[in-house]
Amino acid sequence: MIEFSAAYFDGKTSAAHPVRVSLEGSWLRIRGEGIALEFGINDCQIVPALGRTRRVIRLPGGAKLESEDLAAVAELERHLGRNLGMTLVGRLEERWRWVILALVGLVLFTAAFLRWGIPAVAHWAAFVTPIEVMNPISQQTLRVLDDRFLQPTQLSPSRQAELQRLFADVTQTIGQNHSYSLEFRQSDLLGANAFALPSGIIVLTDELVKLAQSDREIAGVMAHEVGHVLHRHSLQQIYRSVGVILVISVLLGDVTSVTSIGASLPAVLVESGYSREFEYEADAVAAEYLNRKGWGTKPLIEILIRLSTKVGGSERSLLSTHPATEDRVRALEKLAQPNR
Question: What was the pLDDT predicted at 288?
């Protein structure tokens, strides 16, 4: 038989009545001065332990018991098979070293999830996002950029046609049967720039075309942007920025949520640019194209250096964010293959 002392509260007044409590079969018996009560144990609730505070047993009708005999109430819990998981939590709460260790573990887990977990999930989510979702995201992004940063191109029709042919060669060589389109814009705010949207829309600014000293340099930039499309970098960047909420939307097939949150892409492109790893991956795709053409990586290196010098002032560049141009140049030099 389990027996212990407690204070009985009838639920009507705040008065505490000293009692003895015992479990006899399936009955909880309460005895004290002027008190003789019995309750079916299945009708009573043992409140989980909270550190070293008094244990509470709630009784039918709003009454309750409070006991400082923690061991006896814990024995009662074990006997009835109640609160087994919370008992472990209570024991941990009593041991501050375990609490600190749990907090450290939580911090480490959170840091690891932010460092590796979210990028891994974002990568997966980007590649399972269907093309019918990417199309409205891209169109919406282009409309926002046209309203805020871009103006109609001033390139002549003949020059646009030349660049469209060059773009067709790039996409046919390394585009992996993805659908692409090339758009031209002028931008006083963004200056010499290029960027890729998730569906395969590539935008070149007139200022970038004028900055280039050869079409090989422009082809290197085009191939770099195709690399962003192939690796779905802009989608990954959105998913990394918005995080778990958007990934859950992808899992549940909530296309509306994905496209609405896709409105953050213009800010991601203009303000944040791409991460170090994304730029390296896109540069590797560009190097593959340039090497296939027998040009080596020099054309892309030269326009990156020139672009880095030009945007050292106030212009925002989507091509020279992170990593530093010097690091990208060194990586591209290592990827260069001898001219054929």
Answer: 96
* pLDDT < 70 regions, the chain: 51, 84-96, 98-99, 102, 110, 113-114, 242-273, 310-323, 338-340
Helix-strand-coil split of the chain, %, nearest 5: 60, 15, 25
Helix (H, G, I), strand (E, B) or coil at 331: helix
> Are 42 and 51 in contact, with CB atoms under 8 Å apart?
no
Residues in contact with 72: Cβ distance below 8 Å, sequence separation at least 6, in sequence order: 2, 3, 4
Nearest-CA neighbor of 337 among 277, 286, 303, 281?
286
Choose among 133, 141, 143: nearest CA to 252: 133
Cis peptide before 119 (omega within 30 of 0): no
Task: Name the token pair of 45.
Answer: 């609730």
What pLDDT was estimated at residue 113? 66
DSSP output for 195-250: EE-TTSEEEEEHHHHHH-SSHHHHHHHHHHHHHHHHTTHHHHHHHHHHTHHHHHHH
Burial class of 166 by CB neighbour count within 10 A (0 to 12, 13 to 18, 19+): middle
Helix spans in 26-180 (H): 70-80, 84-94, 96-112, 118-128, 131-148, 157-174
| Cβ neighbours of residue 207 closer than 8 Å, sequence gap 6 or more | 186, 187, 190, 191, 192, 193
Q: Dihedral of CA 68/74/75/80: which sign?
A: positive
pLDDT of 105 reads: 82
**Could you tell me the pTM of the whole model?**
0.63
Could you give the CA distance from residue 44 to residue 151 in angstroms, rounded to a whole number?
73
Instruction: For CATH 2.30.29, list the domain ranges present in the chain.
Output: 2-94
Backbone angles phi, psi at 56, to 5 degrees: -120, 135
Task: Please check whether the domain covering 2-94 is classified as CATH 1.20.950.
Answer: no
pLDDT digits (tens, 9 = 90+) for 72-113: 998 998 888 887 665 555 555 556 676 677 678 877 876 776
- From the list 227, 339, 200, the residue with the least C-alpha distance to 282 is 227
In this predicted model, what pLDDT tens digit does every residue of 183-198 receive, in sequence order?
999 999 889 999 999 8
The pLDDT score that the predictor gives to residue 313 is 41
